[in-house]
Protein: Cro/C1-type helix-turn-helix DNA-binding protein
Amino acid sequence: MTKAESADSSWSDFVQRHMDDRGMTTGDLTEKTGFDRSRLTAWRKGERPNLDTARVVAKAFGLSPLEVMVAAKLITAEEAELRGVSTPDPSALTDQQLVAELSRRLKRTT
Structure:
């Protein structure tokens, strides 16, 4: 892997982490996005997405487009006015918020 590929592997890591968090396979992601598997392979080899692709990935994962664009190094965190993207602490969520999140996830798997 070249230095450029190594530097850009954070995009591939970002995608893989969000696939893992959602229990998604490569096939699931290609189905949700309409991308060919070859595009995901290119990401693993260090290729980064363009703006339109980042938007599709954001929608597939249910993430903010800005968060995805920062991960893809299309914009900086400062440009997105993000000071840190964090996952909410489940213990800080209300019961209603937890039930809503579980319901959303269960609908996705059925």
